[in-house]
Specification:
about 450 residues; alpha/beta; Glutaredoxin; 4-stranded mixed beta sheet; ABC-type uncharacterized transport system involved in gliding motility, auxiliary component; transmembrane; DUF7088; ABC_transp_unknown; Class_I_gatase-like
Length: about 450
């Protein structure tokens, strides 16, 4: 009798040892190779791809100091809420430190760094320091993106001829685009070439939009000198007279086809056919991982003369079933075989060449309205504009994938549906459970 008991004891001990070994092994694997899956509809428990990409660009410690009292009347435990949110970032970058300071108990500490409101966060990285008063992913990632810019780049935009203003609030201005660029770390400054001797040497790029009056010949000479010296350029050109910029097209060997791009696909989406839809993006650093639809109102087609000095790359191709119309369409658009030019057409073009031991980069877009305040919120317009600017500023590493679209999680039910669901859970289901229990009781009794 002893041997069977001994064998059973040995088996139990061996099983226990193997089980413990398996648990330890699984723990070691989980610690070394952590994995997780966010099953929520809006992925609310993980970061968007663009936030993760920004974190990859930041080498070294990020210090976060949260100046907040422990409890909030509406939100509850602010320390726990902040820790849970920052943990999403620490998951991808462990060297993010988080410190709490109570501005009520330690007012001197808050005063030293000019803290103004309860719940304000101080972000420190690489000698840079910024304040954050709203704690969410978009706000924090924007701050980190600005800090990821290793250069404090100056961006100039041509002014003095009725051009679109990068700091303006009118519908035709580019104020929203300018705000996004400033959030990403660029400095903006207007440039009037009637006053300036030349485009400043410290400008990383120049933006030209549609002038409303003719440029003077001396101004054109300064622009051409800037191009000849290897300056980077973003040119947003509308389907209007060039007002003296014809010499710039000759310098760049490009052809701006007269007329407006007509896109039947836009008409099918219940928007004007004169709004060309950008959905095809040939491979380029600007369009890498870019899959958002863009809208180019009143666009003009761009072509070019072959020139061995320049490398040309189409950035956006539009209207595969459309055409370039010399006449502004009235009502439903129709293709005129005699006057119109069939699509597809290029409406955004990148040029690059090596000059003066550096690479010169130019982007031409056949629609200034593409980034205007009235239209920039359509699709991925602003995101594509920022990608263009980052490329022109030699900041390819900051061209990130776009934020995910948050799905609407709300469910709308009619009164009939609500009645059916309420009746099912409050009446039918309890009744069925009671009947099932009664049947079981009856069967056991008999």
């Amino acid at each position: 009798m002893k041997f069977p008991q001994l064998n059973l004891l040995i088996k139990n001990l061996a099983f226990t040892a193997l089980l413990l070994a398996a648990i330890v092994t699984l723990y070691q694997l989980a610690a070394r190779h952590p994995a997780q899956w966010d099953m929520t509809q809006n992925a609310s428990n993980s970061l968007a791809d663009n936030s993760v990409n920004v974190l990859k660009q930041l080498q070294g410690e990020i210090k976060l100091t949260m100046y907040v009292t422990g409890q909030d009347a509406n939100l509850g435990d602010m320390h726990r809420l902040t820790r849970d949110f920052i943990a999403l970032y620490q998951r991808y970058k462990p060297d993010i430190s988080l410190t709490f300071i109570d501005p009520v108990k330690q007012p001197e500490e808050a005063r030293k760094v000019n803290i103004r409101v309860n719940g304000e966060m101080l972000v420190e990285y690489g000698g840079k320091r910024e304040h954050l008063t709203m704690l969410n992913e978009q706000a924090l990632t924007s701050v980190l993106l600005r800090m990821a810019h290793t250069k404090n780049q100056l961006l100039m935009y041509l002014d003095g001829h009725g051009e679109r203003n990068l700091e303006g609030i009118a519908n035709h201005d580019l104020g929203e685009f300018g705000k996004r660029l400033q959030q990403n770390g660029f400095r903006l400054n207007s440039l009037n070439l009637t006053l300036a001797q030349d485009v400043p040497n410290n400008a990383s790029m120049l933006i030209i939009t549609q002038p409303q009056i003719d440029l003077l010949q001396g101004e054109i000479d300064k622009l051409l000198r800037y191009i000849a010296n290897g300056g980077n350029l973003l040119w947003l050109v509308d389907a209007e007279p060039l007002r003296g910029l014809e010499r710039l097209t000759e310098k760049l060997d490009i052809i701006l086809t007269p007329g407006i791009v007509v896109d039947p696909a836009a008409e099918e989406m219940n928007i004007p056919s004169t709004w060309a839809l950008g959905a095809g993006y040939p491979p380029h650093a600007i369009t890498q991982n870019f899959n958002l639809t863009t809208v180019f109102p009143f666009a003009r087609a761009i072509d070019w003369e072959e020139n061995a000095a320049w490398q040309h790359t189409t950035l956006v191709e539009a209207a595969p079933r459309g055409w370039v119309s010399r006449d502004t369409p009235q009502g439903k658009s129709h293709f005129n075989k005699i006057r119109d030019i069939p699509g597809p057409v290029t409406i955004a073009l990148a040029l690059q060449r090596n000059i003066n031991d550096r690479e010169q980069r130019i982007v031409i877009v056949g629609s200034g309205s593409f980034l205007a305040n009235a239209y920039s919120g359509n699709g991925g317009n602003l995101d594509l504009g920022v990608n263009m600017t980052n490329w022109l500023g030699n900041e390819e590493k900051l061209i990130t994938t776009q934020p995910r679209t948050v799905k609407d999680g709300a469910i709308t039910l009619s009164k009939i549906n609500l009645t059916i669901i309420s009746s099912s859970f409050l009446i039918a289901l309890p009744t069925l459970l009671m009947l099932a229990g009664a049947m079981l009781w009856w069967r056991r009794r008999n």
